[in-house]
Amino acid sequence: MNRVLIALFLLVGATAVWAQGGVKKRRPLPAEYGRVVINNYSQQAGIPPVVFDHWSHRSKYTCRLCHVDIGFSMAADATKIRAVDNISGIYCGTCHNGKMMMNRSIIFPACAKEYTREEYKTCVRCHQLERNISQEEKFASFAKSMPPEKFGNGINWEKAEREGHFKTIDYIEGLSVTRVKMKIPTDRTLKAKLEGMPNVLFSHTKHSIWGGCELCHPELFSIKKGRSVYSMDEIFEGKFCGACHNTVAFPLPDCRRCHTAPVEG
Fold this sequence. Notes:
Distance between the termini: 15 Å
CATH topology of the domain at 35-143: Cytochrome C3
Number of strands: 6
Order of helices and strands: HEEHHHEEHHHEEHHH
Strand order of the largest sheet: 1-2
CATH superfamily of the domain at 35-143: Cytochrome C3
Oligomer: single chain
Helix content: 25-40%
Strand content: 5-15%
Radius of gyration: 20 Å
CATH class of the domain at 35-143: Alpha Beta
CATH architecture of the domain at 35-143: Alpha-Beta Complex
Largest sheet: 2 strands, antiparallel
């Protein structure tokens, strides 16, 4: 590996653990990676915020199903989920309605207008005030059987999907639109701007498994040829590739997962 590439790995790794403004940011533990805290209205209502772990849903549903069909925004705090929405059967309530099945079990309902002390135990499965040791143990047990990875939550999700460790649902009856099967575009080579850095080999096939077309186009990437010009600085700011690879998909310090094409002479 040449010196330029080594230097870039070190630079990217160092940048990733510093927040904007030069404040050091702790790298999340594997069980925490992809975790989202939803607190638009919870504390106002006198209950703890919702702690959502992507890993527990990622092995069951595609990203497109939740972020396109169900309508969860990919921007933090933008969806404004309310208990009344879940009770009405939208957002979390699309699946968490006490009726839908997963692995031959009924998915527990998300919210209720009234609940007993005993039923409150269901509420705290999502609304968490303290560290959830049980959830961390579930993650450790789940990750143990998955192909390992050094970064993110320590799971190579692409390889796990390819090897059949799980099968994701991409359609909900009465909600999802039946899509015409499209020809997937070929892989694209994106030229690295830094001399000596391997080029990026972008696979439409791999990304379409999780996100389809709608998750990326046209909001993140223009579909017009030559319109999507972006830099690593923008990606680190959460734009373009950084919309997912800063938060849920494998993180940016894992340079070699993207920069895999031969260096051009």
